[in-house]
Specification:
Blueprint: H1 2-15, H2 28-50, H3 54-57, H4 60-87, H5 89-105, H6 109-141, H7 143-150, H8 153-189, H9 199-251, H10 258-301, H11 308-323, H12 339-363
Helix pairs in contact: 1-6, 2-4, 2-7, 4-8, 4-9, 5-9, 6-7, 6-8, 6-10, 8-9, 8-10, 9-10, 9-11, 9-12, 10-11
């Protein structure tokens, strides 16, 4: 059941050009479809950007912010599909093989199915929100004008949000495995009595799983490092840009519109919550690994009844955990944990104040 659900989800990802199929290699049709999509995106994005009025009327700082947003969206929409069909094709294939192995041997298949269904529902809800927003802004600015200026913008916007859904799902599968190992360690040795004859067998099994998960995390960083760096950068700049729109709409009495503010707030929440979820799951995985490490130290303190050989094995186990501790990074620019969210919000706050100052100086 879990495998069938994942097949459906990755079929959607294949259609969006952000993932390969779950149980098959990238076909020639998908390669052709991807290159057609990239060509379409580049051409239409160029035409769309050339029609944007704010590049001519906004302050320089605001123009820079909008240019960075458009650039990040375009880079993401080209880089991610090419990753799937060219640059990271073999890595993707290996990752999906490992995920399939985890799913087939998992004792939490119901939880996996539930996570997949939530992901599919999230993709549907995001699509509805994007369509409603497009309709609203077309009503505000006029259909012809808005479509000419933002025709492919919301497709790229939806791709980033969908990619966050897939990242969250893959990370949740890794998290389930770490939680299972933590529970297994606590089940066998949580009481403090560790003189069981199964001691070496259990440790060897957990060690093998930790090696597997460390390789999986490295594979995840290899495939998704640059996309995550782009997404975090985009999320930060996007929040900054929309906060400025909200501030401008609120200050300008003639243009106050609760619906316009609500539309901007919904867009901010959609992007921020998706990115924050990815970061939060990364942090939860790190916490589970820390709990496993803490358990190993506890075992060493209670190892008086073990033989010297088992004590040495336990010492090696602790060292192995430290050497294979998971670490998530955004293309090696920075590590990802809960502090990343605070760094994003801090950056938004700092540059939002700067934007307000630029706008005040311009008006005066």
């Amino acid at each position: 059941m879990a495998a069938k659900s994942l097949t459906v989800l990755f079929t959607i990802g294949k259609f969006l050009t952000i993932t390969p199929p779950y149980n098959a290699k990238v076909s020639l049709f998908q390669k052709v479809y991807t290159f057609i999509f990239i060509t379409f995106t580049v051409v239409i994005s160029t035409l769309s950007i050339s029609n944007r009025r704010y590049y001519a009327v906004e302050i320089y700082a605001k123009v820079t912010v909008n240019f960075i947003i458009d650039l990040l969206l375009l880079v993401f929409s080209c880089y991610v599909p090419l990753n799937v069909v060219l640059w990271k094709r073999e890595k993707w294939h290996k990752l999906l093989d490992n995920l399939n192995l985890m799913v087939s041997t998992s004792k939490n298949s119901d939880r996996i199915v539930r996570n997949v269904r939530i992901s599919i529902a999230k993709l549907g809800i995001d699509l509805v929100i994007v369509i409603v927003e497009i309709c609203f802004w077309c009503h505000v600015f006029g259909f012809t004008i808005y479509v000419r200026q933002f025709n492919v913008h919301y497709i790229e916007f939806y791709l980033i949000n969908s990619y966050n859904v897939f990242l969250s799902l893959i990370l949740s599968l890794i998290l389930i495995q770490y939680q299972h190992l933590n529970a297994a360690l606590g089940e066998h040795f949580g009481s403090g009595r560790i003189s069981s004859h199964k001691f070496p067998i259990v440790l060897n099994k957990i060690e093998n799983n930790l090696f597997f998960l460390k390789d999986l995390v490295n594979l995840f960083n290899n495939i998704f490092g640059w996309p995550i760096a782009i997404i975090i950068s985009y999320t930060t700049i996007f929040i900054l840009n929309n906060f400025d729109y909200i501030f401008k709409t609120t200050v300008d009495v003639e243009e106050i519109s609760e619906k316009r503010i609500l539309a901007d707030v919904v867009s901010v929440l959609l992007v921020f919550l998706g990115t924050a979820t990815v970061i939060a799951i990364c942090d939860l995985i790190l916490k589970e690994a820390e709990d496993i490490l803490a358990m190993s130290y506890t075992l060493r303190r209670n190892a008086k009844s073990l033989s010297p050989k088992d004590k040495e094995h336990l010492k090696h186990f602790t060292k192995m955990i430290l050497q294979n501790f998971p670490k998530f990074s955004a293309a090696r620019f920075f590590n990802i944990d809960r502090s990343t969210i605070l760094n994003m919000l801090g950056t938004v706050t700092t540059f939002f104040i700067i934007l307000i100052q630029f706008r005040s100086c311009t008006l005066s």
